[in-house]
Amino acid sequence: MQKNSIGLIEMTSIASGMQAADIMLKTANVELILSRTICSGKYMTLIGGDVAAVRSAVETAIETIGFSVIDSFVIPNVHPDIFPAIAGQTGVQTLEALGIIESFSVASLIEAADAAVKSAKVKLIEIRLAMALGGKAFVTLTGEVAAVTSAVEAGAYVVSQRGLLVNKVVIAQPRQELLSEMI
Fold first, then answer.
1. Distance CA 4, CA 49 (A)
2. What is the pLDDT of residues 1-48, one digit of tens each?
3. Do 80 and 113 form a contact (C-beta atoms < 8 A)?
4. How far apart are CA 6 and CA 178, in angstroms?
5. pLDDT in tens, 92-108
6. Residue 183: per-residue pLDDT
7. Are 121 and 147 contacting, i.e. CB atoms less than 8 angstroms apart?
C-alpha cells in the first residue's frame, strides 16, 4: 500500500482510542502504522494510505467518537523522512546544528516535523511521541544553522497556531555526545 498520506487521532480515552482504530481500519483501505497507549493515559492511532482513504477514516472515527478526541490530523504527501524518525531509525551519525521543537500534543508535533523537514534542507533525527514525557512530544533535527533555524521556525509555527508549543531551540554547535543521548 502506498503511504503518501498519514492520519492520526490522539484521544483522552484508551477504550475510545481502540474503538477509533477499529473504525478507521473498517472505514477505508488504510494501513495501521501505530496504535498504542501514550503518557498520561492517552491513546494514539496513526494510519497511512492514499489521501482520500486516510481522510475518510479519520473523519469517520472523529464523527463517531468525537468527545474524547484531543487532537487529530491528515497530512497529504507526508515527507518520507517522517516514518524512520518516528521509528528512531534515521541513521544520523553526526550533528551539525541541532534543532528541537517540543509540543503538548503528539498530533501537532508530527505536523510540525513534516512542516520543518519540508521547509529546509535538514535531517530529522527522531520524533519522540509521549512515552515517558508526560504526554508531550518532541522532534530533533540537524543541518546547517540557517536551515535548522528556518525548519524550527516553520515547525514551531504549526504547533503555536494550536496553542500547543512548549519550546523551540536551535543549538549552533552542539557537542556530539548529545546525539547518543537522543536515540
1. 6
2. 556 899 999 999 999 999 999 999 999 999 999 999 988 888 999 999
3. no
4. 30
5. 888 899 999 999 988 99
6. 56
7. yes
Class of domain 82-176: alpha beta
Please state the domain extents for the chain.
5-76, 82-176
CATH code, residues 5-76: 3.30.70.1710
The three cell numbers of residue 120 are: 529546509
Q: Do domains 5-76 and 82-176 have the same CATH topology?
A: yes
Whole-structure pTM over 0.70, yes or no?
yes
DSSP labels, the chain: ---SEEEEEEES-HHHHHHHHHHHHHHSS-EEEEEEEETTTEEEEEEEE-HHHHHHHHHHHHHHHGGGEEEEEEEET--TTHHHHHHT-----S-SEEEEEEES-HHHHHHHHHHHHHHSS-EEEEEEESTTTTT-EEEEEEE-HHHHHHHHHHHHHHHHTTT-EEEEEEESS--THHHHHH-
pLDDT of residue 27: 96
Question: Which residue carries 469517520 as its cell?
Answer: 60
Residue 5's nearest CA partner among 36, 38, 29 is: 29
